[in-house]
Design brief:
The chain has 274 residues and is an alpha/beta fold. It has a single domain, classed as NAD(P)-binding Rossmann-like Domain (Rossmann fold, 3-Layer(aba) Sandwich), CATH 3.40.50. It is built from nine helices and seven strands; from the N terminus they run βαβαβαβαβαβααβαα. α1 packs parallel to α2, α3 (67-81) runs parallel beside α4 and α4 (104-132) runs parallel beside α5. The structure holds NADP nicotinamide-adenine-dinucleotide phosphate.
Length: 274
């Protein structure tokens, strides 16, 4: 979808972190927005800013783990704008812990919020896109979905699911004018869940793991829609060669990844009890 001006985007997780940056980037493209998350007040603040940019912004307080609220989100978006051109499945939570100590409810919750909500909301939006023969679905995955991280098994599983889902959607719907992209950010050093992890651990990610910024992630979302990109890995240094290497040489690949990431991830996964 090359021209986004005057089109409509629904963004989940738009009350904080990366979602706010994505909203800003799409507003700058002239898109009217539907902002969804649980925190109504925070959404109103974001909406006021977006209206200042010159676009319309509808606030729909939504818990994405509640199916009926997802249905209502779609209904209210269609009632307000008549179409949903872009859906950004961005709402997400992290669950970095030793897996055998992770509360089963946290496992369920991670899959529900990150993956099931993405699958269901897309299911409810797609009939409108199919009818319009136009649409783009952006799924906010992670580099954790490209190579499952130690101490982030449930999180990595949810993000890998989002990437596979994106690929399947592309195969099924592109001939009908609807496409899909997965965004795979590294650690965003200026906001969001990584900031929280950093405060918990008491130090940042080692330089050799690289990082990204919320602004770069937001730019990637726009690029993925306009350029119809299957996936974008947003990190400096570039990680695609490493993931390609891991695919080609899994045993050597996992050894290298372990050497480079294990200490930091272990701290992230065990810092809760310290
Ligand atoms: N930041 C990073 O370094 C990074 C890296 C890779 C991938 N990601 C992915 O990027 C996405 C955004 O993360 P972030 O870093 O911006 O996190 P964040 O700052 O914690 O924001 C998460 C957003 O999701 C919303 N959310 C959480 N649970 C929800 C629920 N049940 N229903 C509706 N909304 C819910 C939150 O809003 P409410 O609390 O108001 O509901 C908030 O708006 C996530 O999918 C995350 O996995 C982030």
């Amino acid at each position: 979808m090359k021209d986004l001006k005057g089109r409509t985007a629904v963004i989940t997780g738009a009350s904080a972190g990366l979602g706010v940056r994505v909203a800003r980037a799409l507003a700058r493209e002239g898109m009217n927005l539907v902002l969804a998350a649980r925190s109504a007040d925070a959404l109103e603040t974001v909406a006021t800013e977006m209206r200042g940019i010159g676009v319309k912004a509808l606030v729909v307080p939504t818990d994405v783990s509640d199916e009926s609220q997802l249905v209502r989100l779609v209904e209210q978006s269609i009632a307000e704008y008549g179409a949903i051109d872009v859906l950004v499945n961005n709402a997400g939570i992290e669950a970095f812990r030793s897996y055998h100590e992770l509360d089963p409810n946290d496992i369920r919750r991670t899959i529900e919020v990150n993956l099931t909500a993405t699958l269901l909301l897309t299911r409810f939006v797609l009939p409108h896109m199919v009818q319009a023969r136009r649409g783009h679905i952006v799924n906010m995955a992670s580099i954790a979905g490209k190579q499952g991280p130690a101490y982030g098994a449930a999180y990595g599983a949810s993000k890998a699911g989002m990437i596979a889902f994106t690929q399947a959607l592309r195969g099924e719907y592109r001939s009908r004018g609807i496409s899909s992209s997965a965004i795979c950010p590294g650690f965003a050093k200026d906001g969001g869940i990584y900031e929280v992890m950093k405060q918990r651990i008491g130090r940042g990610v080692p330089w050799y793991l690289g990082s990204t910024t919320a602004e770069a992630v937001a730019r990637a979302v726009v690029k993925s829609i306009k350029g119809d990109r299957p996936d974008l890995i947003v990190n400096v240094p570039a990680l695609r060669p490493i993931f390609t290497f891991c695919q080609a040489f899994p045993r050597l690949g996992e050894w290298i990844v372990h050497k480079v990431t294990h200490r930091f991830l272990k701290q992230a996964g065990t810092s809760h009890r310290e």
